[in-house]
TrEMBL record:
Protein's name in the database: HAT C-terminal dimerisation domain-containing protein
Species of origin: Latimeria chalumnae (Coelacanth)
């Protein structure tokens, strides 16, 4: 708003306006009026160019999410595109920084409560209809005062009711494995089942990543050593001190170790412990020299803090490195499973780390060889276990203990007992928490072309609203045609399952 002020203004008008223009409120409002509104970031559709630019922005946003790249990268990539593709009109029009990227992301299926300290936020979900290319549900984020299952369920139920979505149409339910999400009593899952009135009960799927992470965390706890606490203490010792980091770098150089940033171990982050353990072992000599030389003197003067004393005692304990080497040898057994799922492979992937892989590390081979089902073995029976000296602890672990003359000392023998307990706890947790005998997951073998028709029967019984009994006879007829047809594509075990069936559908 521009005001023309006359030479003569009665009642002090000129001074009033002059003073108002100089106030903080007016300056802030004037600045806001010149800024772009959020709607201006999303131009109306109509032209092919506009649609092409929008498509590019959405595709790149999906790329950021798929590869877990920080959204801050979108603030820089638009300038990179313009310089990299100077002759592209789409690149010149690309204008999707972090603000716009954040709003595009609101298309996904998720149920998860935040861990905010004061107020809980419970995002519902958005589904996208492929055929109509329109959102089937609007994103609905509800502010909750707690993370109790009743409040979370009410928020979900209200969102679905608002869009006339029947709970009977809910075939599967996938969340993390907390009690308020998937518990047998008074959880969201139990209330979802209570809402359903048809024969088809919702199929609940927990998070396999979370289960394996909990299994690794549960089994890694030792009565003698707390590796996780040591790694966390080391990180926070150097986190905000440039002086300490510089001193550590000097010790690293003296030990001929390339300078590496201290890795932060986050307890709730999958795969974090193995990475942190590996980093600690690589920099062990430099860290050992720093803490022993620095805090031995401070300990004598009484100047060392409790955290520093804990780290010092850990480094002085010869078994600490043994435990680190052991974890470095066995954690890939769990992380390999999580990495396999993260590849999004459609191959015949297991639904848990291999029982055989665990049990063969401490049970006698002759016992495993004659067992039809290794999960039924009484693996806690000492008569079935390997001698302590032959239990798998990793080559580097055993070699280090041998060089340090630890093999015959009592603490190392106690460590070997804990190694056996580690594997036993892993198998116990696997049998209790992992869906090893889930009939639905076992029946998913029908996706692979070398299976028989009866493999689909469990799926039909479990999801009667998805596949009706009347469809089975025509389906069997098509299956027989497939078996006798000599022009169909041959099954290749090296080919992805989805690629195989796509080629079949194109014939």
């Amino acid at each position: 708003l521009f005001v023309s002020i006359a030479e003569l203004v009665s009642h002090g008008g000129y001074n009033d306006i002059s003073r108002h223009i100089a106030t903080e409120k007016h300056v802030s409002c004037a600045k806001a009026a010149t800024q772009s509104k959020l709607a201006s970031f999303f131009p109306p559709a109509g032209s092919k160019m506009s649609d092409s630019v929008t498509k590019a922005e959405v595709l790149f946003t999906g790329f950021l999410l798929e590869h877990n790249i920080p959204l801050a990268g979108s603030d820089h990539v638009r300038h990179l595109f313009k310089k990299t593709f100077p002759d592209s009109k789409i690149a010149k029009s690309y204008a999707c920084a972090s603000t716009k990227t954040t709003h595009i992301i609101h298309f996904g299926l998720a149920l998860d409560a935040s861990s905010d300290e004061f107020e809980k936020y419970f995002p519902i979900f958005v589904t996208y209809e492929v055929h109509t290319q329109k959102p089937a549900l609007q994103l609905d984020t509800v502010s909750c005062t707690s993370n109790k299952s009743q409040e979370l369920f009410d928020a979900t139920n209200n969102a679905l009711s608002k869009h006339n979505v029947d709970w009977n149409k809910c075939a599967t339910y996938s969340t993390d494995n907390t009690a308020n999400m998937q518990g047998k009593h008074n959880s969201i899952l139990s209330q979802v089942k209570a809402k359903q009135t048809t024969n088809q009960e919702v199929y609940a799927v927990g998070c396999p990543y979370h289960l394996v992470h909990l299994m690794a965390e549960h089994t890694s706890k030792s009565k003698q050593m707390n590796v996780e606490d040591m790694i966390i203490d080391i990180y926070y010792h150097f986190q905000r001190s440039v002086k300490r980091a510089a001193s550590l770098n000097e010790y690293m150089a003296f030990c001929n170790i390339s300078v590496k940033k201290i890795v932060k171990h986050v307890i709730m982050r999958w795969l974090s412990l193995e990475r942190s353990t590996k980093h600690t072992l690589i920099t062990w000599d430099g860290l050992y020299s720093y803490f022993v030389r620095t805090f031995d003197e401070e300990k004598q003067r009484g100047a060392a803090r409790p955290q520093e004393l804990r780290i010092l005692m850990s480094f002085k304990n010869p078994l600490m490195k043994v435990y680190l080497l052991f974890l470095h040898a066995v954690l890939p057994m769990f992380n390999k499973f999580n990495l396999l799922f993260q590849t999004k492979s459609t191959d015949d992937s297991p639904f848990a780390p291999s029982n055989d892989d665990v049990i063969q590390r401490f049970v006698q081979p002759s016992v495993v060889a004659v067992s039809e089902n290794v999960t039924e073995l009484n693996y806690k029976d000492s008569s079935m276990q390997l001698p302590a000296s032959e239990v798998f602890v990793g080559f580097e672990t055993h070699n280090y203990a041998r060089k340090e003359n630890m093999i015959d000392i009592r603490p190392y023998k106690t460590f070997l007992v804990e190694a056996v307990q580690f594997f036993c706890k892993a198998l116990d947790y696997m049998k209790k928490a992992m869906p090893l005998e889930d009939p639905v997951l076992k029946s998913l073998a029908f996706f692979y072309s070398n299976q028989s028709f009866c493999d689909i029967e469990v799926i039909v019984d479990r999801f009667p609203d998805v596949i009706s009994a009347q469809q089975m006879d025509p389906l069997l007829s098509k299956f027989r045609d497939y078996q006798v047809c000599d022009t169909l594509l041959e099954y290749d075990s090296t080919m992805r399952t989805d690629e195989f069936w796509h080629k079949i559908s194109q014939m």
